Amino acid sequence: MAKADVTEYTLFLGCMIPLRHPQIEAAARKALSNVGVKVIDVDGFSCCPEPWNVKGASLEEWLAVAMRNLAIGEKTGRDMLVLCNGCYATLTEAARIARDGSDAKEAAAKKLSALNLSYKGKSRARHVASVLFDIGPSTVASSVKKPLAGMKVAVHYGCHLLRPADVTGFDDPFKPSKLEALVEALGAQTVRYSGYTNCCGRATRDSDASLRMANDKIESMKGAGAECVVTVCPACFEQFDLGQIEIKRLLGREHNLPVFHYLQLLALAQGEDASSLGLKRHHVNVEPALSRIKT
């Protein structure tokens, strides 16, 4: 791809990916350059912070931390690229509040001023799925060297990518299709299943209800013929991957449905060796899904 086609982004990893799922970061660094996306690291970022517990405890403190991250990103002169739905939701909503103004925004701005920082709204957070779709499924497909033909994939969007739609602006919150298009660009087959826009249950405070929500989605995926799950969020990834261990232990149901972040499938399709993508870190063995790929 010509140098002129390369777009630079400041990489915002948040906390969950570097601390618990570095395989997602590894996949991003391997795959994105092949579709014209260059990520640049900067120091100083913190947790986004996540958009349910912190925000519920204090809107002002949540907004101050989010605006601090946005201000650091803005100083680079580039938009921020995020690999997590929660980070995307927080940073996008915080940018909107900062733009529209409120008492919380004014209080947060004062906290930033004490750090010699300010957020002027000149840059924004972009979700990697949105960036890839804007580049185009055809461009993504042109980077594929080893198509994932034979792999049947259930797509999980996740709440914070789709809702509230007037904030996230990614896709139709009731009938989304962009992630399916990106998966199909890799040569895989997507399967639609009942409840495909439902929450995975990760943010639910009731642990039993959380696992039952995940279990219901997994059963629906398998019932539709899916052989693996793809997400674009580390929290959703963990809910389905580690969650299956908890579902077996607490609910007595065993699924063995492999789970991937989309960037891992993208890197695989681009010809990256599976051993370089941290797939052995997954709690559910991914080999049955990989073995379905036609060579």
UniProtKB/TrEMBL annotation:
Q: Tell me where in this chain the Cysteine-rich domain is found.
A: 9-91, 153-240
Keywords assigned by UniProt?
Answer: Oxidoreductase
Matches recorded under Pfam families: CCG
Q: Which residues form a coiled coil?
A: none
Source species: Candidatus Anoxymicrobium japonicum
MF terms from GO for this chain are: oxidoreductase activity
Q: What is this protein called?
A: CoB--CoM heterodisulfide reductase subunit B
